[in-house]
Amino acid sequence: MSKKTIYIAGLGLIGGSLALGIKRDHPDYEILGYNRSDYSRNIALERGIVDRATGDFKEFAPLADVIILAVPIKQTMAYLKELADLDLKDNVIITDAGSTKREIVEAAERYLTGKNVQFVGSHPMAGSHKSGAIAADVTLFENAYYIFTPTSLTKETTIPELKDILSGLKSRYVEIDAAEHDRVTSQISHFPHLLASGLMEQAADYAQAHEMTNHFAAGGFRDMTRIAESEPGMWASILMTNGPAVLDRIEDFKKRLDHVADLIKAEDESAIWEFFDNGRKKRKEMEIHKKGGVESAFDIFVDVPDREDVILSIMELLRGTSLVNIRINEENREDIHGILQITFKNEKDRKHARTVIEANTDYHVVIA
Amino acid sequence: MSKKTIYIAGLGLIGGSLALGIKRDHPDYEILGYNRSDYSRNIALERGIVDRATGDFKEFAPLADVIILAVPIKQTMAYLKELADLDLKDNVIITDAGSTKREIVEAAERYLTGKNVQFVGSHPMAGSHKSGAIAADVTLFENAYYIFTPTSLTKETTIPELKDILSGLKSRYVEIDAAEHDRVTSQISHFPHLLASGLMEQAADYAQAHEMTNHFAAGGFRDMTRIAESEPGMWASILMTNGPAVLDRIEDFKKRLDHVADLIKAEDESAIWEFFDNGRKKRKEMEIHKKGGVESAFDIFVDVPDREDVILSIMELLRGTSLVNIRINEENREDIHGILQITFKNEKDRKHARTVIEANTDYHVVIA
User: Fold this and answer.
1) Looking at B176, B205, B232, which one is the last position of a domain?
2) How much is the pLDDT for A290?
3) Do A260 and B183 touch (CB under 8 A)?
4) Which residues are B93's β-sheet partners?
5) B310 and chain A: CB distance < 8 Å anywhere?
6) Are residues A234 and A310 in the same domain?
7) CA distance A256 to A242
8) Is A307 part of the contact surface with chain B (CB cutoff 8 Å)?
């Protein structure tokens, strides 16, 4: 494919990682970047994330074959409006990276209809607690879902072209309607964040009158409130642009709380048991996508004696793999899983690990 | 202190770990155990968890200086009733290990008042996803909170004596009123479990009509629903014996959901931002106790090059420590933390690790 010029507005974790991913498979492409702060522009230039950087959004837009808006949602919509008045290349592909899609897609259709551009919504679904150009990582989107939300401005060739341009991300592509995207993410991401923050606030308030609240909070509470530490600006934008879907989840959840309250009042122990058992069953069934945020969970379990020389010898066998974690479990030997739980970044290394361990040792390896 | 006979009813994870902990500091004590299944009794005997085991609860009760009821809540209350009719040692200390306290304390006072016994409620606050005598672990309660809830049957010497008997657990002792214990745990444990199961059920139902729900669920959702995999029987007992406090948390939470819903309907972005920012601040402030459940989080971070020979050499240095996890982080080098995150079971090994690494290498070690 011929050399392209890619313009990325927003050189934070997302924009920077997109740039690195694109360059991985297309080292000949020219990557231009915009960022408001010159500190970030300098980091992006030093790290080779972009070839040229500007503090003026308009400057590089007319040079681009592809424009990626990797800025906050409101800014994305403002930039779509600005792009409508610029003299862009014919058939330029414009896309974004926003966590919600419907409002962005509606803005794109509102401002860009009738212009000689292509637009598709994008949502590369990965992130981390890190931020900024310094944190940009070519592997950030590996095996993550990269979601396209087609619009009336999406041609038949738009998505195939983008898939090729973005091939270095090594993501899994999905196409979905923008409103459906927002509904689904309200359930598995937006509403859960609201729950976490609400629980944290509730506990903090309770601690005012019940001091030991601060002290007894432990593992389960930690898990339930971890995402309350997310960046407030991003989550405020999300709730502002996905209001109806989130309101729907709130109403639905309140009914569920009422139902459990009724069971408690009725002292219906078997129904309460069913409630918890159902939750447990459903969680085991649900494929919880392995790449979302910080952790990739491609695990193997190796049934070895709890001896350090054994563990070291296994690590020697696994040199060169994308090993990210080794946990020494003291699991009940009656479980299927063995004592050593080794996590890899991807399926390929996981399978390789099993092959290599089973070829060189007598240890049994389970993939789970 | 003179040799004592300790009788533990229930030789699962909790009872078994209590036994091992007691024996650690009092190897001369005689530990008697009761368990319904002979499979578990055999494991307990083989592992040296108990010296003698019975399948008849009444058999060893009259021999005991201390009786610990480490069975499910309802069973605990039934046993308290049985104990009232047995010919026990004068001044025998009776305690339990239940996750809720008020109903157990009320049962003890109801059945044992006027008898020549001492009773105090206990709640050793640790656990894991493991179960059974096979999983019993002398370190389970190390640095965990061991909560006493005094009753009208608690003498001045009851708790001090128990603290001595239980010294091998290496727990942190706390005394609190039984009803207050139940209120606090409703907030930081019981209600969160309900939330997790409710969210899991909500998402599973939503997935019926919105298929991508199953696929887009990722890190945040995984965290929020992890505790939905808990054992349903235990959580049903908890909700059945802590109804009022949990109902209070449900009502309070619904009001918070309503408040956020109002902010969304009003499109009040700055108030929504405050909501999320408040959650984040409060979480950072709250001391989330390090020992609760599966993980001990005694971590060190070692700033090393991401080279396998380096990692292997560090592991060699740490032979003999209670190392449970090695994570190879690809953290932003500007963070304080380094690439290798090593977790130990206790503070002693963590400090030793730092000493030994700093003595033998040039690598910088951070404790965090």
Assistant:
1) B176
2) 47
3) no
4) B66, B118
5) no
6) no
7) 22
8) no
The model's pTM: 0.83
Please indicate, yes or no, whether residues A204 and A262 belong to a single structural domain of this protein.
yes
Which residues of chain A make contact with B193, given a CB cutoff of 8 A?
220, 276
Contact A193/A163 with Cβ under 8 angstroms? no
- Between A178-185 and A243-265, two packed helices, what is the crossing angle to 10 degrees? 30
CATH number of the domain that A262 lies in?
1.10.3660.10
- Other beta carbons less than 10 A from residue A346's beta carbon: 18
Two tokens, residue B221: 């959702």
Q: What is the largest CA-CA distance in chain A?
A: 70
Please choose, from the candidates A94, A130, A116, the residue with its C-alpha nearest in 3D space to the C-alpha of residue A13. A130
What is the sign, positive or negative, of the torsion defined by CA atoms of B240, B241, B244, B245? negative
* Smallest Cα distance from A89 to chain B, Å: 35
Contact B196, B227 (CB under 8 A): yes
- Position B313, amino acid: S
The CATH number assigned to the domain holding A357 equals: 3.30.70.260
Q: Do residues B301 and B276 share a domain? A: no
**Mind listing the pLDDT tens digit of every residue in chain A (368 residues)?**
589 999 999 999 999 999 999 999 999 999 999 999 999 999 999 999 999 999 999 999 999 999 999 999 999 999 999 999 999 999 999 999 999 999 999 999 999 999 999 999 999 998 766 788 988 989 889 888 999 999 999 999 999 999 999 999 999 999 999 999 999 999 999 999 999 999 999 999 999 999 999 889 887 898 899 889 889 999 999 999 999 999 999 999 999 999 999 999 999 999 999 999 999 999 988 755 444 333 346 778 887 766 667 777 888 888 878 777 787 765 433 333 446 888 887 788 888 999 999 999 888 887 76
B283 and B306, same domain (yes or no): no
**How many angstroms separate the CA atoms of A66 and A36, rounded?**
20
Question: How far does CA B88 lie from the centroid of its chain?
Answer: 30
Low-confidence ranges of chain B (pLDDT < 70): 1, 128-129, 287-297, 305-308, 329-339, 368
Choosing among B172, B222, B235, B285, which should be mutated to test the A contact, i.e. which has the most A CBs within 10 A? B222
C-alpha span between B92 and B69 (Å, rounded): 13
What are the structure tokens assigned to A240, written together?
């502002």
- Tens of pLDDT, residue by residue over B292-316, are 333 346 778 887 766 667 777 888 8
CATH classification at residue B25 = 3.40.50.720
Report the residue from A219, A240, A282 with minimal CB separation from B204. Answer: A282
Task: Please give the structure tokens belonging to residue B363.
Answer: 């690598």
Q: Is residue B127 domain-shared with residue B271, that is, in the same domain? A: no
Task: Residue A353: give the domain boundaries.
Answer: 297-366
Is A183 in the B-facing interface, judged by CB distances under 8 Å? yes
Looking at the structure of chain B, the number of domains it has is 3
Domain boundary (A151, A176, A201) is at A176
CB A108 within 8 A of CB A46: no
Are residues A188 and A323 both part of a single domain? no
DSSP H or E run through B261: helix B243-265
ipTM score of the complex? Answer: 0.83
Q: Are residues A43 and A121 in the same domain?
A: yes
Nearest Cα neighbor of A127 from B337, B220, B214, B269 is B220
- B14 and B122 in a single domain? The answer is yes
